[in-house]
Amino acid sequence: MITRDKVGRVTTAPTHERLRSQIEFTLEIDKLKRILRRNTLVDGSRRENDAEHSWHLGMMALVLGEHAPPGTDLDKVIAMLLIHDLVEIDAGDTFIYDTAAVADQAERERAAADRIFGLLPEDQTARLRALWDEFEERRTPEARFARALDRLNPLLANFHTEGGTWARHQINSAQVLRNVALIAEGSETLGAYATELVEQAVAKGILAP
Amino acid sequence: MITRDKVGRVTTAPTHERLRSQIEFTLEIDKLKRILRRNTLVDGSRRENDAEHSWHLGMMALVLGEHAPPGTDLDKVIAMLLIHDLVEIDAGDTFIYDTAAVADQAERERAAADRIFGLLPEDQTARLRALWDEFEERRTPEARFARALDRLNPLLANFHTEGGTWARHQINSAQVLRNVALIAEGSETLGAYATELVEQAVAKGILAP
User: Fold this and answer.
1) Given A63, A135, B30, B139, which is the most exposed site by the fewest CB atoms within 10 A?
2) Is B167 contained in some domain?
3) C-alpha to C-alpha distance for A38 and A21, rounded to whole angstroms
């Protein structure tokens, strides 16, 4: 049976073999729902997991897209955000202020990308891996905007949970402002907004100066 | 200050006023993470919530898109799936086999859509509401494919958790096959696959005939 892949290329692999791999991948990524992040939900009730976090970032791209540089492909940003944390199924969540864990993070995550994207049919492995690499390399407007949302999200959560991870891990405003710089790289407006939030957080006493 | 919205129209609302509404919406939808569905994660460890479910459906659209009818706009499908359950923040999750709850579901969900999408700037309220209405009406290939994934997902979860909600709520194969019909409406291949799964589930004794 002749089938066509998403971009219309004819592929000789039978549909059921492709589908089998795709379903296997679909079941495997369910594990992302069990990878916990450091921050909590906005109501503080429990820690957030990577899957719901990825959904939230996709929604942020949908409603904050106008603050990306003109011409940014927002559909690509959304796809990037949906897949960006899949590697944490194997590599775990790395707390951005944990210097030791950050050191070998890239290596652990590359091995995870090989295994997880490798579950898919070859053409899809290549396509999703390229998207994840693009996100990691942060050279395109899409990758920079996706990263900006990924950094803005916990800042919002911390601001609205009386300091959240900042308070629990003794993070100060200088450390947070290094992340805000990444937000500004992806979106001038959101960078300015994040800077304002940090100033307000310091003024409110929920973030050390 | 003159700004442009996502589709490039000039809007006279100042950026900061739009941004304020968008951030308020972003914080409000965090509540979707606390809306629990009937089914569990694939490992059976706990019930799934709407936010992580929506992420999973977005991922399914990304990897199963080739099984949609040719010409289906998959980016639109993904956006639809990200927002499709937001109304449950107010209306709650309605179990598809709960006839009483299904009766006034549409009304409860419309009121929720008014409030939740209404938090956004007007042009975005209209855009997301139209997308949600399209999903609900199931008249376009995008809406039908999105619905097919929304129905396939719990079927997969139940199959891989020894019957899951089927077993707990005494659901039989005739009831499940009515949902499979919705899958086939959105994707011939996925409909055939789902039918096979139901047959296998009955043969394995994890679904009543």
Assistant:
1) B139
2) yes
3) 32
Q: Are strands A47-49 and B3-4 parallel, antiparallel or unpaired?
A: unpaired
- Four-residue CA torsion sign, A199, A204, B1, B7: positive
Per-residue pLDDT of chain B (209 residues; tens, 9 = 90+): 445 555 555 554 557 889 999 999 999 999 999 999 988 899 889 999 999 999 999 999 999 999 999 999 999 999 999 999 999 999 988 777 777 777 788 889 999 999 999 999 999 999 999 999 999 999 999 999 999 999 999 999 889 888 888 888 888 999 999 989 999 999 999 999 999 999 999 999 999 99
Q: Do A128 and B33 touch (CB under 8 A)?
A: no
Nearest C-alpha of chain B: how many angstroms from A184? 15
The predicted structure's pLDDT at residue B102: 76
pLDDT in tens, A64-115: 999 999 999 999 999 999 999 999 999 988 777 777 777 788 899 999 999 9
Question: Looking at the partner chain, which of B42, B62, B120 has a beta carbon nearest the beta carbon of A30?
Answer: B42
Q: Token match 């603050």: residue?
A: A67
* Residue ranges of A 7-66 with Cβ closer than 8 A to chain B: 15, 18-19, 22-23, 25-27, 29-34, 41-43, 45, 48-49, 51-52, 54-56, 58-60, 62-66
**What total of structural domains would you count in chain B?**
1
Is A26's CB within 8 Å of B59's CB?
yes
Give the structural domain span for A129.
16-204
Chain A neighbors of B41, CB-CB under 8 A: 30, 33-34
Does B138 reside within a domain?
A: yes
What Rg, from alpha-carbon coordinates, does chain A have?
Answer: 19
Count CB neighbours of B114 within 10 A.
13
Nearest to B63 among A25, A59, A189 (CB): A25
In chain A, the percentage of residues whose pLDDT exceeds 70 is 93
Distance from B174 to chain A by nearest Cα, in Å?
Answer: 24
Identify the CATH number of the domain in which residue B68 sits. Answer: 1.10.3210.10
Size of interface A-B (CB pairs under 8 A): 140
A102 in contact with B, Cβ within 8 Å? no
Tell me if B15 sits within 8 A of B23, measured CB to CB: no
In a domain, A5, yes or no: no
